[in-house]
Amino acid sequence: MNNSIINIVYCTDSNYFEHVGVSITSIILNNKHNNIHFHIFLYDVSEEEKNKLQEISSSIFLYSIPLNELNKYPDIQNHKVTHINRSMYIRLSVPRLLPDYVDKFIYLDADILCFGDISSILNINIDSVVCAATADSLDANNMLQNKKRLSLASEKYFNSGFLYINTQNWKKFDTENKANQILLSPQNFNLLYPDQDALNIVLQNQVAYIDVKWNYLFTWMNNQEKESFFHNKQSLPYFVHFTGARKIWYQEHTGIAQNIYCFYKHFTPWSNNSLKSYKSKMRVNDYRIYAKSYLKDKNLINCIKYYSLYFLYKLKIK
C-alpha cells in the first residue's frame, strides 16, 4: 500500500459539479490502494449538491471561492470556447488558497476520466520547476502555430487541463499575478484559450514536459479510434481528457466513451440523473460536424438536414 498522499484539485461551479463527481469516482475506482485527497474549489453550488459530492468519499474537502476572487475577471466572450467559464480562472489562485501542508498537487479539469493507477506521479520530480504538464498536440506544426500566435520562446505549448504543481514554486514565481496581468489586459495578447495561453506565456521555462499519458486528449482521436482506443487496457493512459465542446455527457454523443462515463456515473449520487441534450448549446460548426458524421453512417436524411441547418445559420451570421 502506498501511504504517500496524492492531492488532487478541481475548480468548478454548478454547471460542472456533477462531472467532477464522476471524474473523482473514476480515480477512486482505479486507485483503491492509494491515499488520495480531493480538494474542490467551488462557487454557485447548492448545499444539497455539496452534500452529494461528499457522499463519494471522506477524503473530499470543499473550499468556497469568494466572489471577489472571480469578479476581477471578465466574462468569457469567445465563440470558439463557449464550453468554458470563469471557474477556470480559480486554478490560478489555488496554490495561495490551499492549506500549507499541500506542497504538490495535481490540478484536473472536470472533463477528465481516470483509467489506471496514478501513484507513479509521486516519482515525477518537480522540485526545480513550477509544474509538470503535457503537450497540447501530437502535431509539431500545431505547436509551432501556438508558438507564433503567442510569440513564445519555448518550442512547446502545454494543455492546462492537467497540471502537476509545486505549490511553493508557483507562489515564489508569482505565477498568479503574472498570469492575471495578461488576462486583465487581453487586448495586448492574442488569447484564444485565456488562462491556458496566459500560463504558457508566463511559464515558458518553468515547465517539465511529461508523457501525454497523463493528459491524453480525446480530440486527438478520429471517430474510429474513439471506439477502438478504450479496448486495450494495457495501452490506456492514466487520464483521458474529453476536450472540445461536444462532451460525452450529452445524450447525442453516443459511443464507448459515453458508456464509460455512464459506468462511472452509476457509482455517484447522480446515478439517476438522465443525460442532458446538447441542442441548446449548438454552435454553427456543430451542425457541419454532425452532418459529416451522419454521412459516414450513411444516414442521408439527417446528413442533408444538418448540412441545410449549417448553411442557413452560416448565412444568418454573415
- Please identify the structural class as seen in this structure: alpha/beta
CATH class identity of the largest domain: Alpha Beta
Report the uncertain regions.
77-83
Number of helices: 12
CATH topology of the largest domain: Spore Coat Polysaccharide Biosynthesis Protein SpsA, Chain A
Count of domain modules: 2
Q: What would you call the shape? A: globular
User: How widely separated are the two ends?
Assistant: 61 Å
| Superfamily (CATH H level) name of the largest domain | Spore Coat Polysaccharide Biosynthesis Protein SpsA, Chain A
Query: Tally of extended strands?
Result: 10
Helical content (DSSP H or I, runs of 4+): 25-40%
In spatial order, strands of the major sheet run 3-2-1-4-7-6-8
Mean pLDDT: 90
Percent strand:
15-25%
The CATH architecture classification of the largest domain is: Alpha-Beta Complex
Largest sheet: 7 strands, mixed
Rg computed from alpha carbons, rounded to a whole number of angstroms: 20 Å
Structural description of this entry:
- The protein is α/β, with parallel strands linked by helices and 318 residues long.
- The protein folds into two domains: 2-216, Alpha-Beta Complex (Spore Coat Polysaccharide Biosynthesis Protein SpsA, Chain A); 282-318, no CATH class.
- It has helices spanning 17-30, 47-56, 67-71, 94-97, 140-150, 167-172, 175-183, 194-202, 223-228, 256-265, 284-296, 300-317; strands at 2-12, 34-42, 60-64, 104-108, 112-114, 131-135, 158-166, 207-209, 216-217, 239-241.
- Strands 3-2-1-4-7-6-8 form a seven-stranded mixed beta sheet, sandwiched between helices.
- Strand 2 (34-42), helix 2 and strand 3 (60-64) form a beta-alpha-beta unit.
